[in-house]
Amino acid sequence: MSSAAPPTGDDLVRVLAALANPHRLRVVAALSRERAYVSGLARQLGISRALLQVHLRKLAAAGLVTARLELSEDGKAMNYYEVEPFVLTLTPQVIAAAAETLTVPDSAEQPGAQR
Amino acid sequence: MSSAAPPTGDDLVRVLAALANPHRLRVVAALSRERAYVSGLARQLGISRALLQVHLRKLAAAGLVTARLELSEDGKAMNYYEVEPFVLTLTPQVIAAAAETLTVPDSAEQPGAQR
DNA sequence: CGTACCTGCTAGCTTCTTTTTGCATGTGCG
DNA sequence: CGCACATGCAAAAAGAAGCTAGCAGGTACG
């Protein structure tokens, strides 16, 4: 999903929510410079591993980063993350299009019922 | 911030957070088609006025919509909202640049003091 | 073996966001 | 005057998100 793909409403919310956070912004920034493994990245950013994992998971769920498990020279398991080269342009029109495809939370509701 | 302005980190977070919500996406979508006043828009979207006000305030705080108070023919005060024609392109590089300018939470808040 | 790395997970607390509910104010009209 | 429509705000309830602390498992090296 490298270039300007038309995002569905739910996708868009997920991506925006994933990026709407200082820590996750810094994670994306760091990974855009160089891929990194979890522990090292946590040190680099000055946050705990557990916290970073949560943020990484959220970014991965939005498709903004991907993980690749590798074995280092000395046999340690290293989980390397890298950014997905996304390009997302936000305009009122793009949002209007995406909003059409928004999923309604649950049953009990259907657009155009009562006026 | 109409066209491709370089957003500061905090601005970016604010804008992304403002858009990362189904209701607010629908609000922007509706306003991009036609400006609307609060009560009417609430009916159109099927949500309460109070709730819509909160969402509108958040969108306005992010600079995505603006309000204009007008008097209708019959003297009622109508608060019309409209979208700001923003264009925001998100890429890892843009985020990396914005992340540089992120404000740190700062444990003790002191107006006027620099760090 | 103990230490130093790497990985992952969850329980529980805190904090922020979202939503509801209720009140207060103003104008025009039958 | 009371009803219908417009505006606003704010406290409190409900829910989601953020963060810490602790546990568990793996490999390598001195």
Automatic annotation (TrEMBL), chains A, B:
Family matches, as Gene3D superfamilies: Winged helix-like DNA-binding domain superfamily/Winged helix DNA-binding domain
CDD domains, per database record: HTH_ARSR (cd00090)
Location of the HTH arsR-type domain: 4-102
Keywords, ordered alphabetically: DNA-binding, Transcription, Transcription regulation
Gene Ontology terms for molecular function: DNA binding; DNA-binding transcription factor activity
Protein name: ArsR family transcriptional regulator
